[in-house]
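haha ok so turns out i had the wrong file open the whole time. this is the CORRECT one, sorry everyone. sequence first:
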Amino acid sequence: MWALLRTRAHYDLRTLVNQFKTHLWGLMEIHNGAIFHAATTHLNKIDSLQRHFLHELDIPEEDAFMRFNFAPPSVRRDIGILGLLHKRVLGKAHPVYQKLLPFHNEVFGSLNPALHRFQLYGHSREVLRQHNLFDRSIFAMVYVYNRLPLEILECPTVTCFQKQLTCMVREACKAGEDRWKLTFNSRVPRYLD
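then structure:
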């Protein structure tokens, strides 16, 4: 990152942001599936790299997101995990995920009538202890997935699905919502399937 910042006199903001995306996002996100479960304090250390980069360029996170599609790492992680869940719903994920994340009606024989037909079972009823570990797991993201609007869940591809989620975050950011970065965050305790 420091090498990139040293070149700022030679490039405009868009080019610098694109260089960060090209050279650093891959390194930051290669293990997202594993680090997603880490404590928030550890994830904040990773996220601070991008925040510091924007601070050095004097660009607020909201502006970077709206102008350059430079989403914070936490948003990208959440959308990535939701993309994996959607891939499972589409039947395109590894068979292990089919078994790990069954549909709600496969476990209970029926769906929650207040939700859509794509409901997954997140195993929250099996959690007896360590609820904080559950809240930062892929299983807690099932809760988020199950409450997404049906029109988004009907996307035929993961790419289309993730674009729709990004649009939802963009609308929250544009509206000036304080918690726009937490639009799909699962780390608030929820224990309902």
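Residues 189-193 have pLDDT under 50 and may be disordered.
again sry for the mixup
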